Amino acid sequence: MKYLTLKSVFLWLCIWSLPVLAIQAIQIDIEHSWAEKFDAKELKTYVQFSSDGLKLSGQAAQISLAAPLNQLRNVTFECEKAAWLTDAFRCHSGTLQFSQPELGQQRIQFKIDANTEDEQYDIQLQNLRLDGGTVNLDISLDQLHWDTDIDAQNIPLSALQKWLPQFLDKQYVNAVNDWQPQGQISLQARIDGNKQGIVSATAKWQFTDLGFSNTTASQVAENVTTQGEISLHNTDNTWDFIASSSLMAGQVYSDPVFVDLSTSAIELSVDGKYEADSNHWTLADIKLNQSEQFNVEAIAEVIDNVPSKVEANVTVKTLSSFYSTWVKPFMVGTAAADLQLSGQVSSSISWSDMQHQLKATLNNVSVVDSQQRYNAENMNGELVWTNSEAPLDGYLSWQQAKLYSIDIGAGQLHTQTVKNGFKLVKETSIPVLDGELQINQLSLQQQEDKQITWSFDGLLLPISMESLTQALGWPIMHGKLSGVIPHVRYQSHKLTIDGALQVKVFDGTTVIRDLRLTDPLGVLPQLYANIDMKDLDLALITKTFDVGKITGRVSGEIYNLRLSNWQPVQFDAKLATSEDNPGKRIISQRAVDNLTQVGGGASGMISRSFLRFFDDFSYKRLGLSCHLRNDVCEMAGIEDTDQGYYIVKGGGGLPPWIDVIGYTRRVDWADLLERIKAVQNSSGPIIE
Amino acid sequence: MQIIKWLTGTVSGLMLVSCVTINIYFPAAAAEKAADRIIEDVWGPETQPADTSQPEKQDKQSSASDARMPLAMSVLNWIVPQAEAASADININTPAINALQSSMKTRFESLKSFYDSGAIGLTDDGFIALRDAKSVPLKDRNQLNSLIAAENNDRKALYAEIARANGHPEWQNDIQQTFAQRWISNAAKGWWYQQGGSWKQK
Description:
heterodimer, A: mainly beta, 43 strands, elongated, disordered N terminus, B: alpha+beta, globular, transmembrane helix (chain B), YdbL (chain B), DUF1318 domain-containing protein (chain B), membrane (chain B)
């Protein structure tokens, strides 16, 4: 106290006991006193002497102190059994009361032991109340060391929030307030230090009902209980520390991941050191564990706030729940948006000097797409990924798989990964239905814009049409599907197949060209192709589709074919008697009836005419075309008549001959399919 | 004389080409009707239909014949393309479109409460987006994210499919813009929509 003015000082002596005449009490009244960072109004102090020692007490209407305490009002203090010696001061049961805007009304017990000669001081404060919570402090210091014990119980975060403007800039205070922190914290800490600063510290904390949310509610915690502890030691500005924390209850959402901690607690522990002079963190032992889901063991180094090295081993405990929590939220809208998974996965991640590599080991992993577009069973292998130039070998095998309704047998791929891409290191064959897909080359690359492109060359070894049509749910056809696939590319969600697929079916040749598939596993896959057909045996076709017997050979095309979601929605198709190889051309009475119906006529005309006596008729040519657009099939035959078109033109062999003429040019596609399917309700053809 | 002949021929040719071009203009009015039919089916009768008192929008085809058009072209328009324009229509009755429509209709049962609460809103490019995450309980966030992604995938596929089904894949953006307007026009009172980057409530 540099300056002290006493406007009025009263010392009064009170005689407690007449036989002993001594000073028993002193009262000092100070109307106004001030010093640097101290300003008191109406300060009164009392000193009472007794056989137990001194009793100190006092009061002040207002005391102004430096921030953060600022103004204390209605201050009273009392100290029983105080001792004030030349080199020491003791007060073992003191009470301090005051009111303060942020702290409210306070009644604090304190204890002071001060030895000025040895410069040893011990101050204890108990029962500082913060919005329902309590804080106890014990501060000791001597010439060389100091230590502080803090015991805070159930302190509401809102109580601490009120003090932030005293310590932080406004922008940071606003940032904290924007997160709307809620909850309570309990803390037990001990900090030891010397003149240079902190030497060691230990702390245990527990947050209960912790909640916060940023302004967009993309980072939110609700009713979280978390507890943790830390122990640190400082040697020459190098801090060794061990810390652990567990999140045990409540819910957390960090867009897009949601974790229900009450069903799946998370535990984290870190053992490391921080070299403050070089701003270098060495995290020698990081353990992160989520019950039932995953376990991570890692090491890391961070220099100047930039990670320079990270190595982590991740063990997935339950693949299905790990996928649901940590993978699925990132997959919305993709082909992996909703999977059922089983099996074991472990992985290692290595990141150093901008080079990274990832290895994932699969052990009997099975995946099923909930929309039943694909599945794979018993996958084993080691999947690798790296951006470095040092190649890494990987492989993947599976027991069986399915793509839409196509069965794929057991297979394996051996790959080499380098610089964000991989390629197949040896040719492989994958069973597809009863044939094989031979893959000669397969490569995948992640472009700089993160888009994935891949390509492969291969060979489709014969697949029987029986198995293919059965898988596709079509009428059973006979023959083989095979072809060379010179180059398949996937780029910008588009699959393009160069070369042609050859289908040996109905004893003829069908060639599929210009195959293109967009959005293959998306909402609405689109398949485009041009198809040429040569010398198909009508007898086999009509037998397959059971539409009455027709013999002869036909050739034709299906150009501009588009399948939307695997259903034909557009094509320009025509099929007509092969000009250079027409074969023996005979059509049965039933086939005539059915063809008539397809052309829009009614059935049964033949059976009502004299022609019913003939089972078969010769014909010269037949043919039909359909241009499908907008769900309407624009039909035509081999030749136009005045009002219609010839579907079958009689001639060729021996009579009887028959012409079938269609009159309906525009047919609803769904209706046409129905007609082909039902083959009923037909009126007779025009028989000439 | 040769030059005049050449010029006349070239100009006539250009005008003819122009007329042919007009034929593939986007039929906006028909697209709006098609969009309204789909939206009404997806959202059902609960949502209030848009105020139809405003004059019916003209197709872009017919808008080509406004007063600023050269006389020769107007005559040619009258002779050649008007008949085509009158018959312009948008087909939305294909299995793929029906399937998408049905999928969106089923999903709407789950999305409706989020539209009503303002958790999601209609964007001005024909999709939906999360508007007010705070109104969604944390445990429901992932489900809503999935619904939004699935709905937007369906919508994107729908716009592309309508354009393709009508033989004009290049119409996709026009179809999308038409739907963007019609979703908002048909939205129920209280729902939120985006306009110029900010959210507004109907």
